[in-house]
Design goal:
Blueprint (H helix, E strand, L loop, with lengths): L2 H23 L25 E7 L2 E6 L2 E5 L9 E6 L5 E8 L19 E5 L10 E7 L12 E2 L17 E2 L1 E3 L1 H4 L3 H4 L8 E3 L6 E10 L24
Antiparallel strand pairs: 1-4, 1-6, 2-3, 2-5, 5-12, 7-8, 7-9, 7-12, 10-11
Bound molecules: calcium ion (2 copies).
One calcium ion binds next to loops.
């Protein structure tokens, strides 16, 4: 064997060994196999363990999962947009969303003295979708009686812990589903997969301007496939309350 050929064989062998090592250290998730722990016994999640979330709000939202902020609408309030994020799921998964119509806090009117509507839709790739199974509560309503000539609003403080896992929403009513032609979403909505998700809001799509949605997703028997424990706390994040 020539020196050149021998070198090629050695290089090829090293490449194959590296590829085999990479394959062995990869951490499958969606195939159901438990990933391998590293030398310290820590099992690290990979992108295969994540799911994709897509949200569209008329006009703005912030979302917490299991008490942590995970997505905020980066555009307030126009143009209407879809926010898509990667999420590492932990079940049971408590989703809490604060959504706002673009309403003047003092008058409840949108774009001058008009009455504008809201709307929110969400889909995760694990099948989680918005529906009337979600809880919903309004915290800002107006203009009362649709009186745009003499507009008045009704406003309640959003509870400090509205996003917490253990927040008691048992006395909240269920969200109301609205047909798509009532919402009339803009082009970004049609560029994403929202199949089977419903447009939701509280009882008055026009006059309820600030609302909170809550929903718990259970996966009986689900166990975390990783042992990393992020220490992120939502309590000190400014500007989200
Ligand atoms: Ca409104
Ligand atoms: Ca609006």
């Amino acid at each position: 064997m020539s020196h050149r050929k021998r070198t090629l064989v050695i290089v090829s062998g090293v490449c194959l060994a590296l590829l085999a090592g990479a394959a062995l250290s990869s951490q499958p998730g969606r195939d159901g196999k438990r990933p391998r722990p590293d030398q310290r016994g820590i099992v690290k999640p990979t992108m295969a363990d994540t799911l994709r979330g897509a949200m569209y709000a008329d006009n703005w939202f912030v979302m917490y999962i299991n008490g942590k902020p995970v997505a905020v609408d980066s555009i307030d309030f126009l143009p209407h947009n879809v926010v898509a994020v990667d999420l590492l799921p932990e079940y049971p998964m408590t989703i809490a969303v604060l959504a706002k119509d673009n309403a003047d806090p003092a008058t409840g009117c949108e774009y001058g003295n008009q009455i504008g509507d809201g709307g929110f839709i969400l889909k995760f790739s694990d099948g989680t979708v918005t529906s009337a199974a979600w809880k919903a509560k309004c915290f800002h309503h107006g203009p009362i009686d649709r009186d745009t000539a003499n507009p008045k609003v009704r406003s309640d403080a959003v509870p400090d812990n509205w996003f917490a896992v253990n927040f008691d929403d048992r006395d909240w009513t269920n969200a109301v589903e609205y047909p798509q032609d009532r919402i009339q979403p803009k082009e970004p909505f049609f560029q994403h997969d929202f199949k089977d998700a419903k447009w939701i809001w509280t009882g008055d799509l026009d006059l309820d301007n600030t609302v909170v949605f809550r929903h718990r997703v259970d996966r009986p028997g689900w166990k975390p496939k990783w042992t990393t424990t992020p220490g992120l706390s939502a309590t000190d994040v400014p500007g989200l309350r």
